Amino acid sequence: MEVYTTENEQVSVLKNFFVENGKAIAAGLIIGIGGIVGWNYYQSHQVTQLQDAAVAYEAATVVKGTAEEQLTRLKLFAKEANNTYGAFAGLDLAQKSVESNDLPGAEAALTAALPKADNEELKDLINARLARVQLGQGNADAALSTAGNIKGKGWAAYAQDIRGDALLHKGDVKGAQEAYTTGIQSEGAGTIKSVMTFKLDNLAG
């Protein structure tokens, strides 16, 4: 069942960025809280933790062993890692659940991943995927609520696309048309613009 659309590229970009730049991110966090008590301890401890998490995430996602062993390793990491990489592992688990048509499992993985995300871009991505999964289960109201938590301008078009789909599911054709139109006009609509234009044209026809 296809419940994800064109945000797949965004998750790949985010994951690659964090995996490849773990140390730099940690350093940026340290610079941002300069002057607090325990500077030296925080500096060494947080950098080490983030580097270790990046290495552990890579190890957890390396393709080795049986599919069941890979899944077990990923679930364990997602459960134990209370950081950005734990959020990424949750996204990975959700993707695998979708591929096996286990949408409740995907929803659980994304819900657990959300509080682990420590930046707004990643939160928006998780909320977008969570709303898609909720809609895939026929829960339009939950999808609308989750889409309302998507705040970034770069995700505005995705949020409106989800809103349009959810409203259409509820039989609100006019509301869906308004959502798609707003999404098309959103800043940085990108490739999702053509998807919403297609949907809008079908409704008009």
UniProtKB/TrEMBL annotation:
<feature type="transmembrane region" description="Helical">
    <location>
        <begin position="24"/>
        <end position="42"/>
    </location>
</feature>
<dbReference type="GO" id="GO:0005886">
    <property type="term" value="C:plasma membrane"/>
</dbReference>
<dbReference type="InterPro" id="IPR018704">
    <property type="entry name" value="SecYEG/CpoB_TPR"/>
</dbReference>
<keyword id="KW-1133">Transmembrane helix</keyword>
<feature type="domain" description="Ancillary SecYEG translocon subunit/Cell division coordinator CpoB TPR">
    <location>
        <begin position="15"/>
        <end position="204"/>
    </location>
</feature>
<dbReference type="GO" id="GO:0044877">
    <property type="term" value="F:protein-containing complex binding"/>
</dbReference>
<keyword id="KW-1003">Cell membrane</keyword>
<dbReference type="Pfam" id="PF09976">
    <property type="entry name" value="TPR_21"/>
</dbReference>
<protein>
    <recommendedName>
        <fullName>Ancillary SecYEG translocon subunit/Cell division coordinator CpoB TPR domain-containing protein</fullName>
    </recommendedName>
</protein>
<dbReference type="InterPro" id="IPR026039">
    <property type="entry name" value="YfgM"/>
</dbReference>
<keyword id="KW-0143">Chaperone</keyword>
<keyword id="KW-0812">Transmembrane</keyword>
<keyword id="KW-0472">Membrane</keyword>
